[in-house]
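Risk register update: the risk that structure generation would not scale has been downgraded. Supporting records follow, first protein first.
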Amino acid sequence: MKNLQREDIHIISRHSNVTEQGIERALKENIYNDQEMWQKFLRLFFITLGIGFTTAGIIFFFAYNWADLNKFAKLGLTEILVIATTIIVLLPKINASTRNIILTGSSFLVGVLFAVFGQIYQTGANAYDFFLAWTLFITLWVMVSGFAPLWLLYIVLINTTFFLYTEQVAKDWPAILIITLLFLFNTAILIGFIFLDKDKKIPKVPKWFTYILALGSVTFATLGMIFGILDGYEPVSPALIGIVLAVFALGIWHGIQSKNGFYLSVIPLSMIIIISALLLKISDNEGMFLLISLFIIVSVTLVIMNLLKLQKKWNHEK
């Protein structure tokens, strides 16, 4: 049986005559990590830790010795590091996981290179230019690697670039419009990765990656709705309300179909926050604060109870 989970083995043990030795063997073969798995985990962990500390050390090196270094040393050292790590990635004997981790470190060094260049030549005070260049110059690496942490860095850079652009250039854009656009972008990325995860021809997308994307999308949706409620009517508010309701309904449906409690907990939590903001808009006296507190306690309790019921139902259906 493929993809056998711990809950499956427990259900089999309760509803069959399998011996304790058989259950123990199934746990060892399908659940417990053996020596080889621990060695693989520790190898990747220490590689990631080493590259992370190395990148941080390079950043602090430039920060501490900035005044004593000439322009050639500042740019030359950073460029050599970027080139060296990129050459290491191209070596054929390196496995895919190590290659992707090193490539992620190289992507951070690209940001260091642009930061050094900007500080030397004073390319301008618009910080979005820095993040835009960083994003563009690692695009090819992101597309080729298909590595989830590198994709996460890429998405964070795009969001940061857009946000800084609205702060420094498009200063007249209303906050709710900015949040709406960020919500639409992150939701589109999330839906795209969910569909890619169903394609058996490509590697599976890690759950933690889609969870982070979903959390970001729900956060922007919640902030947009709160801005629309507390700051009064905005032209984009009706469109945002309709889109948020549609996306939330789609998320609930996906959570039920995939038997994933994450979406069924994050979305209701967002709705509780939005309704609390709506009640606060109606009145902000002591009685309303008491009502909001009771509403949060009761609604969170109901969400937890329903999640527990669904979890028990899904366990019995396995």
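Supporting record for the second protein:
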Amino acid sequence: MTDDNRVVERSGWAPVRHFAERSVLGLFVVAAIGLTFGVLLLLVRFHWQPLQDLDRAVADGLNRWASGSDAVVAVLQQVSSFGGRGVLVPLVVLLAALLLVRRRPRPAIYLLVTGAGALILDPSLKALIGRLRPVVEVPVASAPGNSFPSGHALGSMVVYGMIVLVLLPAVRRRWRPWFIGLAAVLVAAVGFTRIALGVHFLSDVLGGWMLGLAWISVTAYAFRIWRREAGRPTPPITAGLEPESGHDLRPAPAEGAVLPHPWAKGAEILVGWVFVFGLLYLTGYTVTRWTPAFDEAVPAWLQSFRTPSLDHLSWMWSKAGDTHAILIISLIFCPIALALWRQWRPVLFLALTMIGELTLFLCAAAAVDRPRPPVEQLDGQMPTSSFPSGHIAATMCLWAVIAIIVMARVRRPWRWILPALAVIMPLGVALSRMYRGMHHPTDFLGAMLLTAAWITVLWWTVRPNAHAETATEAAEEAAQAIDGRHLETVG
């Protein structure tokens, strides 16, 4: 090392030099990506014949392959949905909310700004280019708007790319290549499905990928400049956007074993499941062979109040207990609970409750095989029998478990809303299901029996609130530590 270099090192200019070198390299990469996208855009805009021939050949070949099987089309559509706005927008909003809960506002802002930019870029360029969608021999899917660039390819590249940048510090070093690879495979799969479904050309997908990569590169560079101006170090991008946030982003860094003696606990849960199933089967067998008089009278009486307005209202209440609604609420609550209390145990409690409810309902319904009430059924033919009610049982289990978890960890007055919802939501769903002619009152009784027995089994085996106070104190201490570090930085 020369004397001049030693002076530079001592004067503290080495970090600046390293930052400048990385910045120049980053700008070169971004410029190369942007230039490639610009060339592709011009080729598409001016209808370059070799590119059009390639697009047509790929679209026709994949269409012949996909259109030969309904199962293949269904799988392609399911994978494609992971690049749609219905998945990406809630995912970004939820992750930003979790970052705010963990006191990490900078990456939360990065997610929201970068995601909003992608939402603007997609329709703007489509309107500017005005390329029509492919016309294939056997259409298996359709999509609105113009074709170039692919919004699914652009959105998946941006969202999953920036999620990798944000969450990378929380992933152990040996798992980071797998984490990045998983995101890359998902982005590639979404792009492939858009071509195979016949709604985009190959060049549309390539354009979406390049534009998305250029956009997250620009915003990541801007984020690094922001850190630099705030007096924070700027390590290589391979360490993530905020390497120091790794501890705060890990789901439960201080939690020990989620369940001690997991094999013994698993055996206890299995035995409890068998016991609950037996109880449901015995009850279902009884009410099917000796039906109480009110069991058919109540649905018939409710049918006399039917009006178009009440039909619509009952449909909405019924939807609150279907699989999609229950799954969405569970997928929202579990990450928030994990971010707030840094414990896997309540999440496991909710997951086991809902899995057990679903399997108990399906097995009991198949074993009992009870007919639906002898009235007009507004929902038509259902794939399962009447006892017990799956809608009511799922709603009961979900809101009861949420109330159990929150009541033990929150001391605010608003917590009493959760027990109220645990009563109101199932009652509304039960009334709507009987009004629509889909269930007897004793089916409601079966749902109550399933909920009470199954949650009791899991309460004694999982012990979801065993360390509730410890988790709350740990979250408060972590928040105080983050505030302390922030004050030291400002000072």
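Residues 1-12, 481-491 have pLDDT under 50 and may be disordered. On this basis the risk owner (M.S.) recommends closing the item.
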